[in-house]
Automatic annotation (TrEMBL):
Residues of the Tyrosinase copper-binding domain: 120-137, 278-289
Record Pfam families: PPO1_DWL, PPO1_KFDV, Tyrosinase
Gene Ontology biological-process entries: pigment biosynthetic process
Binding site for Cu cation A: H100, H120, H129
Disulfide bridge map: C25-C41, C40-C101
Residues binding Cu cation B: H251, H255, H285
Cross-link (2'-(S-cysteinyl)-histidine (Cys-His)): C104-H120
Known cofactor(s): Cu(2+)
Protein name: Tyrosinase copper-binding domain-containing protein
Keywords (A to Z) from UniProt: Copper, Disulfide bond, Metal-binding, Oxidoreductase, Thioether bond
Source organism (scientific name): Ceratopteris richardii
Cofactor: binding comment: Binds 2 copper ions per subunit.
């Protein structure tokens, strides 16, 4: 809960989060898991002006797999110059990376409060990164004196972009980073469902899983603005109230897939303080940014947020002239305002791919299962399976005596969810599964997958290309700790608590259970066992 807005001087009834005061920076920070401490404080400026977008030519961001040799030459030269700026220059390579560290790893408090400032896991995620990329791009452009320069995007959501883009995979290039997973160099296909170990899927199977993840996160689970953009974040709110679907996956999975698991926190890309030290970060976020634009074209209720605490929130960045400037979210809703757009490429996942029900295949053989929107005896058999399965389940109850305040998610959790009302996919309302109070240790990589009515299937083997799959939660490691706290043995601020929300109307329709009074939810933790995760409640919401 935020402070009642009347308590914030001069902001009656409005409380957009204000940028932190750069003078009040905490250093050093502890990245966790034994990694050396870091200092990512940004230079202080006494002058801050409102940014005016200069008169720029319209620029097109191109797929990193489709760039010309000419483009590669310019881009690598811009990075060479960036890397050779003196380290105190606000445009310098490490300063650029530290901008990300500063606003993800709690170097600052929200201005005028004692609450950590955080641009992830809330509705800040898309607009803050859009502005961050904008200024990074402008700095590169000015270093090579070319106003037409635009960043590329890593098109990991389509077969044409499924590998590390070759220009980033060249050890002699200024775009290369040594701290990446050596198993994931070309021609390895990116795993958008990465569960922190190698999946051994064939490229063809991987493609199907990737499409399914994209379809869920962009199309079925994110039909309303709050599902896509993440939870509201106002002045005085605790940081990171809850991420939108895409911020969890594939944004989070691609981060961890790219970083090197031999490093303490999967540096560089696998943890937020070091992620932007890898030049590929900006191409990764180019694609995330592109998905924001695409999402708004998918129809239905998919429009930008209109809350004034969102639109009026401001950020500060150093521009290409080393001036500290202030920008507003409202000015970044359309990429055209920032004078860029994206190359049009095929969007394979937008076509419906997830119709095969896992339980149906237990009757009709692998790959042969029709959608349960099927007729006759098979449908009856499946309904019977569902009934039997649900009979053995109880509703979720958190054990409040537990130290982590909720119930630990050490192994697969199955629970019954009762539906207070029934909503048909065709209705206006979206039915939302809320996993409330998800607590994780910030510095751990965490992923869990959520399924509905997953019966007769081995959870460890099921892929996310089945109709029962509802979505995935991911925590990209980031620290919340000040080194001083670590030294005192304090661990509380290492815990992050947020809500995880998924639109499930289409899953219920696909499983043909829109008329049922209840359903079974299965939550499967992935990755290393015994990573502390707990949840407070599982419930439904309607929006
Ligand atoms: Cu600021 Cu991909 O994280």
């Amino acid at each position: 809960m935020g402070l009642p807005s009347l308590l914030v001087p001069g902001t009656a009834l409005a409380s957009p989060v204000q940028p932190p005061d750069f003078k009040k920076c905490t250093t050093p920070l502890d990245p966790g898991n034994g990694a050396p401490s870091v200092d990512c404080c940004l230079p202080v400026s006494t002058i801050i002006t409102d940014y005016k977008i200069p008169n720029l030519p319209m620029r097109t961001r191109v797929s990193a797999h489709q760039v010309t040799p000419d483009y590669i030459a310019k881009y690598t030269e811009a990075y060479r110059r960036l890397r050779s700026l003196p380290s105190s220059d606000p445009r310098a390579y490490m300063m650029q990376a530290n901008v990300h560290c500063a606003f993800c790893d709690n170097a600052y408090d929200e201005n005028g409060t004692a609450v950590d400032y955080q641009v992830h896991n809330s509705w800040f995620f898309f607009p803050w990164h859009r502005w961050y990329l904008y200024f990074h791009e402008r700095i590169l452009a000015s270093l090579i004196g070319d106003d037409t320069f635009a960043l590329p995007f890593w098109n990991w959501d389509a077969p044409g972009g499924y590998t590390i883009p070759p220009m980033f995979d060249n050890p002699n290039s200024t775009l290369y980073d040594t701290k990446r997973n050596p198993l994931h160099r070309n021609p390895k296909v990116v795993d958008l469902d990465y569960s922190f170990s190698e999946s051994n899927r064939t490229p063809q199977q991987q493609l199907q899983v990737n499409n399914s993840v994209m379809y869920r996160q962009m199309v079925t689970a994110a039909k309303t603005p709050s599902l896509f953009f993440g939870q509201s974040y106002r002045q005085g709110d605790s940081p990171g109230p809850g991420a939108g679907t895409v911020e969890n996956t594939p944004h989070g999975t691609v981060h961890v897939w790219t970083g090197n698991p031999s490093n303490p926190n999967d540096e560089d890309m696998g943890t937020l303080y070091s992620a932007a030290r890898d030049p590929i970060f900006f191409a990764h976020h180019g694609n995330v940014d592109r998905l924001w634009s695409i999402w708004k074209t998918l129809g239905g209720r998919r429009t930008d947020l209109t809350d004034s605490d969102y639109l009026q929130a401001t950020f500060e960045f150093y521009d290409e002239n080393k001036n500290l400037v202030r920008v507003k979210i409202a000015d970044a809703l359309q990429t055209e305002n920032l004078r860029y757009n994206y190359q049009n490429v095929d969007i394979p996942w937008v076509r419906r791919t997830t119709t095969r029900s896992a339980v149906a295949t237990t009757f009709s053989g692998p790959g042969g299962g029709p959608s349960p929107a099927m007729a006759g005896p098979l449908k009856e058999k499946i309904k019977e399976k569902y009934r039997d399965f649900k009979k053995g389940l109880k509703e979720f109850k958190a054990d409040l005596k537990d130290k982590m305040a909720g119930r630990k998610l050490e192994k697969t959790l199955k629970a019954l969810v009762k539906r207070p009302r029934k909503v048909k996919a065709a209705d206006f309302d979206e039915e939302i599964l809320v996993i409330e109070g998800v607590q994780v240790a910030c510095d751990e990589k965490v992923k869990f997958d959520v399924y509905i009515n997953l019966v007769d299937v081995d959870e460890d083997k099921v892929g996310n290309d089945v109709a029962e799959y509802a979505g995935s939660f991911v925590n990209v490691p980031h620290t919340a700790m000040k080194m001083a706290e670590t030294k005192k043995g304090l661990t509380d601020s290492r815990i992050r608590k947020s809500n995880f929300r998924l639109g499930i109307g289409d899953v219920l329709a696909d499983l043909d259970i829109e008329d049922d009074d209840d359903f079974a939810v299965t939550i499967v933790p992935r990755g290393k066992p015994n990573i502390p995760v707990s949840i407070d409640d599982i419930r439904l919401e309607y929006e």
